[in-house]
Specification:
Chain lengths: 221, 221
């Protein structure tokens, strides 16, 4: 049996790694590191850099863009070819491996190849954002909606808080809906990184196209 | 200025603490520890036990039950009286401090007393549950709904995945709604603890009243 760990390394601050993530990276036979460009350090790689020293690191080319089933299949085949029976590999991924992560697709393909998958949850950008803004994700009796890109108006009517990851192209439309339903919002760029920024200005948010961004909002009480 | 840290210690497994949580606990002048019964170790306290050795620990009585504004106000006053100007206290809390946590209310009261609050996000039960079940919280283009107790049918119609924390008394009604909208569900008890259990049987789930439980579900593809 070959074991593939999906390891969430958190939103950006290396101190937001869990002890479990570090232990799994340290004990794995290989560490698999996704890179949007082959010769440029990836984000998960930068966050976990300290723990990659002395490890057998395999970089994997993951270009930005639409989902690519072939790529996930080929990636799983690479992982399967790399590991010998009884060996383990830690695939590191930013945030949480089950929340808007391409690792999810790789996991499904690896399971098709009979690899044993084990997940190590990570601090998601959504929780890090709520912490940075001191705005509750949820309090007792309330509910929360997490979306990427666009939001559903009917859901906005019925929940008290919302986080939209990568609002980019649809942000003008999203902000209009949030205002319509009485939400107060903040826009956060590069949450938990040293250059984190928090914006409130609607026009500025609408014009921004940063990939590492989130819109967090709560209904006015 | 007095600083109050709200420190999420994760869902149960001590290895799911972040480095940041450990650093803040270790460097704080005091650690504040909530207990449902005065003479019984609290859950956050058990999870972080290793890092409390040699610390000045102040236990706070937090009985289970409905929210209690007076209690949160009195707690904030206790924190304020304990800390001298320039000192810091780490209030530890299970999961994430902004997700269904009584710490949220304590934070608001502490802010009213001009204490500086800083939050350290923790792995939420929701992310740990998704990892244990290998069921995505969200993949690209999908959305997620987090609730406690009861769920809104109209939201279920419009999202792909749902986590209900503490489904207890309303679980029969919730399971009926989930089945109606084509969700596949799993019930998890004491996620990430050594005695974690995963159940699928509707009748058994309906009859269980465990406080440390979550219902996680995704629409069939």
């Amino acid at each position: 049996m070959k074991t593939l760990y999906g390891v969430g390394v958190g939103p950006g601050d290396p101190d937001l790694l869990t002890l479990k993530a570090i232990k799994v990276i340290r004990s794995a036979d290989y560490v698999f590191v996704p890179r949007p460009k082959p010769d440029k350090q990836g984000m998960a790689e930068a966050i976990a850099a300290e723990y990659l020293q002395g490890k057998r690191v395999i970089t994997l080319h993951f270009p930005m863009g639409p989902d690519n089933v072939d790529l996930y299949k080929r990636t799983a085949e690479t992982l399967d070819r790399t590991l010998k029976d009884g060996e383990s590999g830690a695939f590191i991924t930013i945030g949480d491996p089950m929340t808007y992560s391409t690792f999810t697709y790789v996991m499904f393909e690896a399971q098709n190849l009979d690899m044993q998958c084990v997940l190590v949850p990570g601090i998601s950008t959504c929780n890090a954002t709520a912490a940075a803004l001191q705005m509750p994700v949820t309090i007792k009796g309330e509910s929360f909606y997490l979306a990427d890109g666009s939001v559903d108006e009917e859901v906005l009517r019925r929940v008290q808080s919302v986080c939209v990851l990568k609002p980019r192209k649809q942000s003008a439309e999203t902000l209009e809906k949030l205002e319509k339903y009485g939400f107060e919002y903040r826009y956060i760029k590069r949450c938990s990184f040293p250059d984190q920024e928090i914006w409130c200005d609607r026009r500025a948010i609408e014009e921004d196209r940063d990939y590492m961004s989130a819109l967090f909002s709560r209904k006015r009480g």
